[in-house]
Amino acid sequence: MEIFDYDNILLLPRKCRVESRSECDASVQLGARRFKLPVVPANMKTVLDESICRFLAANGYFYVMHRFDVDNVAFTRDMQERGLFASISLGVKAPDYATVDRFVAEGLCPEYITIDIAHGHAESVQKMIAYLKAKIPAAFVIAGNVGTPEAVIDLENWGADATKVGIGPGKVCITKLKTGFGTGGWQLSALKWCARVATKPIIADGGIRSHGDIAKSVRFGATMVMVGSLFAGHEESPGQTVEVDGQRFKEYYGSASDFNKGEYKHVEGKRILEPIKGLLADTLIEMEQDVQSSISYAGGTQLMDIRKVNYVILGGGNDAEHILM
Ligand SMILES: NC(=O)C1=CN([C@@H]2O[C@H](COP(=O)(O)OP(=O)(O)OC[C@H]3O[C@@H](n4cnc5c(N)ncnc54)[C@H](OP(=O)(O)O)[C@@H]3O)[C@@H](O)[C@H]2O)C=CC1
Ligand SMILES: Nc1nc2c(ncn2[C@@H]2O[C@H](COP(=O)(O)O)[C@@H](O)[C@H]2O)c(=O)[nH]1
């Protein structure tokens, strides 16, 4: 198996088929809806909050609300009363089952539910998928996180409508260091490996450091990418604002960090500071323009045309660089 990551792959252009990049369509279908971009902000406390979710839903972007200190039922009711879709996260513990029961009792159905745990290839996830499919069958269920083809096959067979791939490639992840496991350092090739067996959409989660990494993820099989650090440093970001030597930052911490958990137990995340780089809406527009450029370099007009391109793996030291068709 080839091992590579975002920083040592480049995609190869094909003859341009458009007169303007504005002809390139960066939108993507996920479940019953079409979204402007194949990008979703990470469901983390320092990345998004209720008001960012409302902004994203109202402006044609996908979002997944985080699951920490949130009343998912009240959130869903509020979004749907405003005519917006609801997309929530659940864990696999007793309170999460109680939340599902409340949805049923109140006759509410979030359009998207993401089962979000560190080690998603687990019986606990199988049970939660089965419970959701029995109680709220209309919801589109995303499950994860996983990092192997076996896990993707199991989650799909258990009923997941999409899988989320990425164990430890995130900027605030320390899973690799703490456990010796994961896809950190080879996330893009792990994605390729998983995509070979997937029959449903994959969301590639973690490790995106620049906008070009979105196209690389699509090339290797992602329908969408989940992005944390690139979104955490905006004026609207919910993390605390910190000033260091006159420069403004937002805090960004892992969901499995002691900052999120409130205790130091099974910690697999850390806290960093992201420089504030402006408004979220501007970044989303720039991302769309960059994905449109990627599509044009791919010689296409649609997002999935990116899947057709060849690529090179850039070798280090004496390794030859080689082209893969
Ligand atoms: N993508 C990634 O690489 C990672 C993401 N995260 C994020 O951190 C948040 C918290 O996740 P998580 O701690 O799973 O949430 P929870 O503690 O809510 O749920 C995990 C459940 O699975 C059990 N479990 C068994 N093995 C593991 C394992 N290796 N890691 C974690 N749980 C395990 C836990 O029991 P018990 O606690 O008793 O062991 C618990 O019941 C999530 O948002 C998750 O996405 C966390 C780590 C890695
Ligand atoms: N190992 C851990 N992974 C975490 C934790 N909190 C979140 N995450 C994952 O990171 C991505 C975002 O990655 P980024 O590179 O875009 O910043 C997020 O979607 C989760 O899957 C954690 O505490 N530990």
Automatic annotation (TrEMBL):
GO terms for cellular component: cytosol; GMP reductase complex. HAMAP family: GMP_reduct_type2. It catalyses: IMP + NH4(+) + NADP(+) = GMP + NADPH + 2 H(+). Coiled coil: none annotated. The active site is at C173. Keywords: NADP, Oxidoreductase. PROSITE patterns: IMP_DH_GMP_RED. Belongs to the IMPDH/GMPR family. GuaC type 2 subfamily. SMART domains: IMPDH (SM01240). Its EC number is 1.7.1.7. SUPFAM superfamilies: Inosine monophosphate dehydrogenase (IMPDH). Catalyzes the irreversible NADPH-dependent deamination of GMP to IMP. It functions in the conversion of nucleobase, nucleoside and nucleotide derivatives of G to A nucleotides, and in maintaining the intracellular balance of A and G nucleotides. GO terms for molecular function: GMP reductase activity. Gene3D superfamilies: Aldolase class I (3.20.20.70). CDD domains: IMPDH. Residues 5-308 form the IMP dehydrogenase/GMP reductase domain. GO terms for biological process: purine nucleotide metabolic process. This is GMP reductase. NADP(+) binds at residues 202-225.
